[in-house]
Design goal:
Blueprint (H helix, E strand, L loop, with lengths): L6 E7 L5 E6 L2 H13 L6 H10 L4 E8 L6 H12 L19 H11 L6 H11 L6 H12 L3 H15 L6 H11 L6 H8 L17 H12 L4 H16 L11
Antiparallel strand pairs: 1-2, 1-3
Length: 259
């Protein structure tokens, strides 16, 4: 009769002595699970699967290293054997951790299909935005991000741009979005090439919608204030103010017009 118990086990390649160490609440059932994946060439551990494919089933043995009746002690004992034996076929060096284990192609496809077309709620997007605000990335992180963006294939980038354009097509930006963009660019002079790109399509363009339009006094005042604040108008306005002061008080001593 087969006895079922928990413990730490080892799968040993007798051809070279290399091992895989694991833990299970039922060691016999775990060995059957390993056998099923290895025999079908679908084991999640690529190193162990490659060795099985090369040396064959006859080269591998299954051994229980230690019986552990309390399941809460399994990971602790497994970590002990991982640290002392340092088995070759174990990809993860931490008991219970799957970091570094590549997912099978069918699992990746299922995850991709489940996420395709999924839309995050407004609350989720707001939480993600709040968690990223004020986050400062290191120079290494920024370099890795730039390298990742540069490695995107042109056809992939074209599909990404098309998807973003389709998602925003026909949707005018909100007032909050417009104000945030305005504040982000406020006071930042545009480079000459950017100004040329913006101005070139506008040259010679006729605006029939503006024909006969009459500006309000408030609009005229805003335009005047905006133009006066620009150089060389700022210097001209300062010179005009000095001249006006001289005309108002010709007898008093005034500072020179051009210091």
């Amino acid at each position: 009769m087969i006895e079922h118990f928990g413990g730490i086990y080892a799968i040993t390649n007798t051809a070279n002595g290399r091992q895989y160490v694991g833990s299970a609440v039922d060691t016999h059932q775990r060995w059957l699970t390993h056998l099923s994946g290895l025999r079908r060439d679908k084991h999640p551990n690529p190193k162990l699967q490659a060795a099985w494919r090369k040396y064959g089933e006859v080269a591998f043995t299954f051994t229980v290293l230690e019986r552990v009746d309390d399941p809460t002690n399994l990971l602790e004992r497994e970590q002990h054997y991982l640290d002392t034996m340092r088995p070759y076929y174990n990809i993860c060096r931490t008991a219970g951790n799957k970091l570094g284990v590549p997912l099978p192609a069918d699992a990746v496809e299922k995850m991709r299909a489940g996420l395709t077309g999924q839309k995050r709620s407004i609350e989720t997007r707001q939480r993600q935005s709040q968690s990223l605000k004020g986050l400062k990335r290191t120079a290494e992180q920024r370099a890795n991000m730039c390298a990742g963006q540069a490695s995107i294939a042109p056809e992939t980038r074209a599909r990404m741009n098309a998807a973003v354009s389709a998602a925003h097509k026909g949707k005018p930006p909100s007032s909050a979005c417009i104000e945030a963009s305005r504040q982000a660019h406020l006071g930042k002079p545009r480079p000459a090439d950017v100004r040329e790109k913006i101005g070139a399509p506008q040259r010679g363009r006729k605006r029939p919608d503006l024909a006969g339009r009459v500006r309000t006094p408030e609009h005229c005042a805003k335009l005047s204030a905006s133009l006066k604040a620009r150089a060389p108008w700022a210097a001209i306005n300062a010179y005009s103010e000095k001249c006006a002061k001289r005309r108002q008080n010709p007898s008093t001593e005034q500072p020179p017009l051009f210091p």
